[in-house]
Design a protein that fits this description.
Elements lengths: L2 E3 L13 E3 L2 E3 L6 E6 L6 E6 L5 E3 L5 E3 L9 E3 L9 E6 L15
Antiparallel strand pairs: 1-3, 2-8, 4-5, 4-9, 6-7, 7-8
Length: 108
């Protein structure tokens, strides 16, 4: 079935460092892809999404992710992290948002 895989565990960075959180997906079609963020003490919220191949998802907090069909990847990137970005980040695809979602925890 369709799934996503996040390979890293906890990510430790200093303020101003660049961030990449890897996400690869497997799908028989062309799903919509999503990044969710969960800040300490709060519920998950949508960070950004891309609905078709080669789209770039962007957030209002300077995160972005490119939907790359040739590498089946949707890596989350930010050029300069801040302390306020400390959170858990989840990658998901359309067929797993309300079903079985795979992925490791990621913390800054």
């Amino acid at each position: 079935g369709d799934s996503v895989v996040q390979t890293e565990g906890e990510v430790l960075l200093s303020e101003g460092d660049s961030l990449t959180v890897n996400c690869s997906y497997e799908s028989t079609g062309y799903p919509s892809l999503f990044w969710y963020v969960q800040y300490p003490g709060k519920g998950p919220e949508l960070l950004l999404k891309a609905t078709k191949g080669n789209d770039k998802g962007r957030s209002n907090k300077d995160f972005e992710a490119m939907y790359r069909t040739e590498t089946t990847s949707f890596h989350l990137e930010k050029g300069s992290v801040r302390e306020s970005d400390s959170a858990v980040y989840f990658c998901a695809l359309s067929d797993t948002v309300t079903g079985t979602a795979g992925g490791a925890e990621h913390k800054l």
